[in-house]
Amino acid sequence: MRGNPAFEEFAKSAEGKSRFTRVVFTPWTTATSDPFAKEIGLLGLPIYVTYRDGKPVRRKVGYGPPAELQKDLLDGIQ
User: Which residue has the higher pLDDT, 65 or 78?
Assistant: First the structure.
């Protein structure tokens, strides 16, 4: 939940260039046993994954300000 404001700001700043989806695990303690979590290699929450042509190309675990998320997840990806 703490990452939601940064996620919202990040998504808004990249509007029109990318699509964003939020996945919530309820309860969050079941996240590591969830099939989707296993597929994306969940190691912690929050996790941000950038996909290109249906394949994961970048990943970031943990919180960060929107500018850091932009740099780590989107910069240089065409």
Answer: 65
For residue 77, how many other CB atoms are within 10 A of its CB?
A: 12
Cβ–Cβ < 8 Å for 14, 73: no
Task: Give CA 75 to chain center in angstroms.
Answer: 14
Q: Which two tokens stand for residue 63?
A: 């919180």
Tokens of 76: 């240089």
| Residue 7 confidence (pLDDT) | 75
**Strands 47-52 vs 55-61: parallel, antiparallel or unpaired:** antiparallel
Nearest residue to 6 (alpha-carbon basis) of 20, 16, 25: 20
Return the H-helix or E-strand segment holding 43: none
